[in-house]
Write a structure and sequence with these properties.
Layout lengths: L6 H4 L2 H12 L11 H6 L6 H12 L6 H8 L6 H5 L6 H15 L4 H15 L1 H14 L5 H4 L19 E4 L5 H4 L2 H12 L3 E4 L8 H5 L3 H20 L5 E3 L2 H8 L1 H4 L7 H9 L1 E3 H6 L2 H7 L6 E5 L3 H6 L5 H8 L2 E3 L15 H4 L1 H16 L5 E4 L2 H8 L6 E3 H8 L1
Parallel strand pairs: 1-2, 1-3, 3-4, 5-6, 5-7, 7-8
Helix pairs in contact: 2-7, 4-7, 5-7, 12-25
The structure holds iron/sulfur cluster (2 copies).
Length: 406
């Protein structure tokens, strides 16, 4: 694709990056076929190729309009298009640049700004979110069905093993997951403990920064990355092997720290190290597969449907690891049609674009439940809560299921 970027961006780092990405696109449209919003809305501008044209026009100096913003806001940033693209177009980087340009040049309406600010504060401030969510869990039996569905039932986290092994890894606690599903990291700690690895957490670490980034606050995302790097580097220096992430959405964000802080002279090298040493929990456990197999008790076959989050399969490009582990543990995985498509959760998307998110969830649940599974397993807290809100069949993190089998 030929480009003639406008003066305001041409010689900036973002402009050079966008230019290189745009020039890779050959307009073939293969990506359109695997885009969930194009499939749902049938409008070229709600597919990756159309959005790439809109961003190109924007960067070449076209007027910034609400229409452009609407089509970019409707994008889930699921990155399915990146997996499909034969030319290696890094669409997610391009759409981030496009969104930043729009936000600088066209302010959102007051109500929308308030909604986004409230969401960002609520979700990324643990001392506000945790008690509010716990209160919601207590009141759940009294809430109207629609509201109750938005709160996961309380599940105690069980015993968390102490740090007793020479091998240690660092867990990202995150912002919303400890309140919504504290058992996920506790289950990861138990499984790793059985495999001879202690999982430790740094109290100084917190939100990975994905939420503020989704809500257009790149500076807050960078601040979160710097705080986590400061918390983790001393532990890495002291011998911790890796940073383990149990929410694939957060895992994608941590893996992106190298890019996020590439222009920060004080943090670029540390960010690159942290990104390199960060792993999804499935990657870590797969590496210990032989030890795991020796520990697994044989039990009756249970049917599970696995929903691979976009952040796992398209963001981290981890495909097949969880499925391999669950099958090794004796579960029968039911076939899931269109497993590459997003469930509609996508960070804060389900709150900001509820209509599209609900349709995507309905489609995803039909595909997941078609094989009659006893439960749905997934790998990201956002997908878990979003799917559970629309299903009577239990939705669990796969590490909790594996922990119970051990
Ligand atoms: S990121 Fe997802 S929703 Fe956005 S254009 Fe790509 S495939 Fe479509
Ligand atoms: S598949 Fe890749 S090269 Fe083809 S239109 Fe989509 S982004 Fe461009």
């Amino acid at each position: 694709m030929q480009t003639h970027l406008a003066d305001f961006i041409r010689d900036t780092p973002a402009g050079r990056e966008a230019d290189a990405i745009l020039r890779k696109c050959v307009h073939c449209g293969f990506c359109t076929a695997t885009c969930p919003t194009y499939q749902l809305l049938g409008d070229e501008l709600d597919g990756p190729r159309g959005r790439i044209y809109l961003i190109k026009e924007l960067l070449e100096g076209a007027a910034v309009t609400e229409k452009t913003r609407l089509h970019l806001d409707r994008c889930l940033t699921c990155r399915s298009c990146e997996t499909t693209c034969p030319s290696g177009v890094q669409y997610s980087r391009l759409v981030d640049i496009g969104r930043e340009v729009i936000d600088k040049r066209l302010a959102r309406g007051g109500l929308e700004q308030m909604k986004r600010a409230a969401l960002k504060t609520l979700l990324s401030t643990n001392w506000i979110f945790s008690p509010a969510y716990r209160l919601g869990q207590w009141l759940r039996p009294l809430l109207p069905t629609r509201l109750a569905a938005m709160v996961l039932p309380y599940r105690a986290s069980g015993v968390r093993p102490g740090s007793r092994h020479a091998r240690r890894m660092i867990a990202l606690a995150g912002c919303v997951q400890p309140a919504m599903a504290p058992n996920i990291n506790a289950a990861a700690a138990r499984v790793l403990d059985a495999l001879g690895v202690s999982l430790i957490e740094s109290p100084q670490a917190g939100c990975c920064g994905a939420l503020p980034l989704h809500l257009d606050d790149i500076e807050a995302a960078k601040a979160a990355a710097r705080r986590n790097i400061d918390a983790w580097c001393p532990l890495l220096e002291a011998g911790a092997e890796a940073i383990v992430v149990t929410a694939s959405g957060c895992g994608t964000q941590v893996r992106d720290y190298a890019h996020l802080l590439a222009d920060d002279a004080d943090y670029a090298a540390k960010a690159a190290r942290v990104a390199l040493l960060s792993f999804d929990i499935s990657e870590v456990i797969l590496a210990e597969r032989d030890k795991l197999l020796a520990l697994l008790a044989k039990k009756g076959v249970e049917k599970l449907a696995f929903h691979s989050p976009c952040s796992l399969q398209h963001g981290l490009k981890v495909r097949g690891s969880v499925e391999t582990l669950l099958e090794a543990a004796g579960f029968l995985l039911t076939p899931v049609a269109d497993s590459h498509l997003c469930c509609g959760s996508a960070g804060s998307y389900s709150v900001l674009q509820p209509g599209i998110a609900k349709k995507l969830r309905d489609n995803k649940l039909s595909a997941l439940l078609a094989g009659g599974p006893a439960a749905i397993a997934t790998a990201n807290i956002g997908c878990l809560a979003h799917l559970q809100a629309g299903s009577d069949v239990a939705v669990r993190h796969w590490i909790e299921i594996l922990d119970e089998r051990l």
